[in-house]
Amino acid sequence: MIGGGPAGLSAALVLSRAGRRVAVLDSGSPRNAPATHVHGFLSRDGLPPAELLAAGRAEVTGYGGTIIDGTATELLPDGHRGFRVLLADGRHVSARALLVTTGLRDELPDVPGLRARWARDVLHCPYCHGHEVRGRKLGVLGGGAGAVRYAQIVRQWSHDVVYFTPTGRLTDPERCELVARAVGIVEGDVQHVVVAEDRLRGVALGGGRVVPRDVLFVPPRFVPNSGLLAGLGCELDEHGWPVRDADGRTSVPGVWVAGNIANPRAQVVTAAGEGSTAALAVNAHLVEVDVRDAVDAFGRGHVA
Asked: What keywords are annotated for this sequence in UniProt (predicted)?
């Protein structure tokens, strides 16, 4: 497994319980590290992300899996043996099959102050954080494709929502929809977020106007961490997302993906489920290889 988040650890758990030799390579920089709690994960709601990963690691190693702390820098074919994974510190790991769960990164709008408040009071997922900020003064930084629909979803958690958008960007139907649900519309260029006493206080626009807000929802641009897959020759779409089937199988035989590397909207519970699904497919692939090798050995007079 390349990546030790929920998808990679879930897959490792399934495969280690199936008696496979499993190694999880983890760089130790999970996307949800700034978040204080995981939500929407049945039986684990409210658990800090670090505790979830620690529990997953313990389960994997309890079944004989190995966790390797390190950063993979390149994936290489290794003849009939499968693949070789090169690490930044010079080590390498050989594997018969690969599951890549390197996730994605969030590219935020170029607004001063956003990144420093990320996952605190500047948020992106209303399903992850909406309940915790319900009833407060919420803002939505709009202007991009789908942002109005996103604001309508955020509206579910508060009656006081303001939609920030560049002037002239809203269509008449979008404006009508926002007004109909009492979503405030503020048009203009956002200059920066206003913070005092380590809390978001508002959003500053041109001309010195400040709109008071407690929380700002920002739909980021999702960028897949697909460089390793590209280097291995996996097919990517025009936006850099790996092309895969329903089980996560990529265009390169023996390579699968799961979680946010292929599904930008996967929450923690979704990513874990996709990791489990991919693990079943990986094991089925390895069984096919085992059968083929056993038949070849049998034909040569050797019983595996």
From this structure: Flavoprotein, Oxidoreductase
